[in-house]
């Protein structure tokens, strides 16, 4: 230990230069840090929910959806339909967008001289100007299952456009926003769904770092100054944690680790916890006074306690690495641990090296400040009231244990935002008018043309409807029933596979159908929407499913 301490003071100049150069190197990589607000990416790749979502997105192009809400003062106007058409057209040109669902792309089954005709619900090339014709169209589409309160509100004043896409949600969400904002929309336009929530979260993470980091630095400076009454001591204590933070964030930039909703507090954690090591070392140098031998004695007296403090703190954060299921928590544990290690080495190397040039004179601390006297008196009170303190701690400990079962586990993404935030208000608006913006999919495997499979899908949809949590259920079953009804067989699934195959002929080549049934008709989707990612009701319903 003595040899190590002597080496620190012997090579103090190279140590200061090396740490300074290394800090400059890490600073270069900090601007390359990116924010990852995508909560799905936080889950392990082998998680069943993740693998299923990826499979559905790759095969059907539906698992990711951006929601555009249009709102007007008057119900179902020419302006609404023209705006909807322009948005649909422009969003379709975005390479990542696989399908746009709205009133112009939703399939309508009608009877004809040939038996059955399948065409878009509204002809985008023949939008009426007369309001009486528009009212007639609205009256017709309002009776269609999967349309009212799904694509158009009951009062006709609001409409939804669903943009299904592949790729990075924040990038696609940003492209959709840019495209729509260039269009002269006659009504109000709102952006909802996961991509736009992630965009907002991206901003929130960045703003949190901008606010929290200066705030904690200022707070620590105030506390340190009240303790040391010396600006130099305050700056040195803060310097170690700031350098450790730069190293940690720079390392994340080098390794291309993105900042998450948890790792954005790493700088705050490092400054809050790492200052303790600097405080121990600076206090020891103040107590021992100036001079080479005194400096060696000061560092020798605290190096082991500081090491043990850093070790126990690091072990605490290491537990996140091995005990966490989510990747973002493991990353937080890894880089906070690395940051603690950086803080320790910077504290025992840089601080003594700097302080050895000019330490603190004992006269600077001979008179105790009011701040110190308060804590000294508080310490004496604790010693005098040891039985009361033990009793109070025991009572608090018991109540804390009793409160553990009352902790509610809840992961609703929208709860990350303030109730006054625009994105939350939009989510509530979509939930109120259309049953929610969060899509839910049930993948069905089997011979989809078999009436037995279709009837099971129908039965399962009825089961979901009865639960009431999932809205806007839709599948190929609805189209089969519509066609059967048009042919005079009643709104039901045909009894034989031959009849289903005959109806299936009319569905072939339809873009909308390709997103709900695969080309071999061996897999199909049941789609619905829910208001939030997690509620007690939805959690219970998922278990029942």
From TrEMBL:
GO terms for cellular component: plasma membrane. It holds the Pfam family MMPL. It comes from the Bacteria. It is found in: Cell membrane. Residues 235-357 form the SSD domain. The chain crosses the membrane at residues 12-33, 211-228, 235-255, 261-282, 302-326, 332-355, 388-407. GO terms for molecular function: transmembrane transporter activity. It is a multi-pass membrane protein. Keywords: Cell membrane, Membrane, Transmembrane, Transmembrane helix. The keyword Metal-binding does not apply. Gene3D superfamilies: Multidrug efflux transporter AcrB transmembrane domain (1.20.1640.10). This is SSD domain-containing protein.
């Amino acid at each position: 230990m003595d040899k190590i301490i002597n080496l620190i003071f012997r090579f103090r100049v190279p140590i200061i230069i090396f740490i300074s150069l290394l800090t400059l190197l890490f600073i270069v990589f900090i601007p390359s840090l990116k924010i990852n607000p995508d909560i799905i990416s936080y889950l392990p790749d082998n998680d069943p929910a993740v693998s299923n979502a990826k499979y559905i997105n790759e095969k059907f192009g539906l698992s990711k959806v951006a929601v555009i809400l249009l709102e007007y003062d008057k119900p179902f106007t020419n302006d609404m339909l023209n705006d909807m058409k322009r948005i649909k057209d422009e969003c379709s040109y975005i390479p990542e967008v696989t399908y746009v669902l709205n009133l112009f792309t939703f399939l309508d089954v009608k009877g004809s001289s040939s038996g059955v005709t399948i065409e878009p619900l509204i002809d985008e090339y023949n939008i009426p100007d007369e309001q009486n014709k528009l009212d007639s169209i609205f009256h017709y589409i309002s009776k269609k299952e999967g349309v009212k309160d799904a694509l158009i509100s009951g009062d006709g004043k609001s409409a939804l456009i669903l943009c299904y896409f592949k790729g990075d949600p924040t990038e696609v969400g940003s492209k959709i926003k840019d495209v729509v904002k260039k269009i002269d929309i006659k009504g109000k336009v709102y952006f909802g769904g996961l991509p736009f929530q992630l965009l907002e979260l991206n901003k929130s993470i960045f703003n949190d770092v901008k606010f929290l980091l200066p705030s904690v630095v200022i707070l620590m400076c105030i506390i340190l100054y009240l303790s040391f009454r010396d600006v130099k001591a305050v700056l040195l204590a803060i310097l170690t944690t700031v350098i450790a933070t730069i190293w940690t964030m720079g390392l994340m930039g080098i390794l291309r680790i993105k900042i998450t909703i948890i790792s954005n507090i790493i700088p705050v954690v490092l400054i809050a916890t790492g200052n303790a090591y600097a405080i121990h070392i600076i206090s020891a140098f103040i107590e021992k006074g100036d001079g080479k031998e005194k400096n060696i004695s000061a560092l020798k007296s605290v190096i082991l306690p500081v090491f043990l403090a850093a070790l126990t703190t690091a072990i605490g954060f290491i537990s996140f690495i091995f005990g966490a299921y989510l990747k973002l928590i493991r990353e937080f544990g890894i880089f906070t641990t690395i940051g603690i290690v950086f803080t320790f080495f910077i504290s025992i190397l840089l601080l003594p090296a700097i302080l050895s040039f000019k330490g603190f004179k004992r006269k600077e601390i001979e008179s105790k400040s009011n701040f110190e006297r308060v804590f000294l008196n508080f310490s004496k009170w604790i010693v005098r009231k040891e039985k009361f303190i033990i009793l109070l701690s025991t009572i608090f400990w018991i109540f804390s244990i009793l409160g553990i079962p009352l902790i509610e586990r809840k992961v609703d993404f929208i709860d990350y935002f303030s109730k006054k935030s625009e994105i939350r208000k939009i989510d509530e608006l979509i939930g109120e008018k259309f049953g929610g913006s969060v899509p839910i999919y049930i993948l069905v495997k089997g011979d989809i043309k078999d009436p037995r499979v279709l009837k099971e899908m129908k039965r399962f949809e009825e089961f979901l409807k009865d639960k009431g949590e999932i809205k806007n259920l839709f599948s190929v079953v609805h189209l089969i029933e519509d066609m059967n009804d048009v042919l005079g067989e009643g709104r039901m699934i045909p009894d034989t596979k031959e009849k289903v195959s005959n109806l299936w002929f009319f569905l072939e080549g339809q873009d909308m159908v390709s997103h709900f049934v695969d080309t071999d008709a061996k897999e199909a989707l049941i789609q619905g929407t829910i208001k939030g990612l997690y509620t007690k009701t939805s959690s219970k319903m998922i278990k029942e499913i």
